[in-house]
Specification:
With 87 residues, this protein is mainly β. Helices cover 10% and strands 31% of the residues.
Length: 87
């Protein structure tokens, strides 16, 4: 159905050159102020893509995103305390 995707945060020195990252995967966001880009690539080709990205002269550092490993299902085990703070 949908391929597994892996997210990477890529720290760049040149924001204009970061637009070229689109050919390596799905470019989600580019921060002009903090000089990073968020790129999603297919998980089966992630290692090869990272090797190619490290060769680029405007790439400073590459970090893997842990967003898909964060727990998003919440349980209602604890008592809700918002009713104590009501008016």
């Amino acid at each position: 159905m949908f391929p597994q995707r892996t997210g990477y945060i890529i720290w760049v020195s040149d924001v204009k050159a970061a637009r070229n990252l689109e050919k390596y995967g799905s470019l989600h966001y580019i921060s002009r102020k903090m000089h990073y880009a968020v790129l999603y690539v297919n998980a089966d080709r992630a290692e090869d893509t990272v090797k190619n990205l490290k060769r680029l002269n405007y790439v400073k550092k590459i970090e893997r995103s842990y967003r898909n490993e964060i727990k998003t299902e919440y349980s209602n085990e604890f008592e809700e305390k918002t009713r104590f703070y009501g008016m």
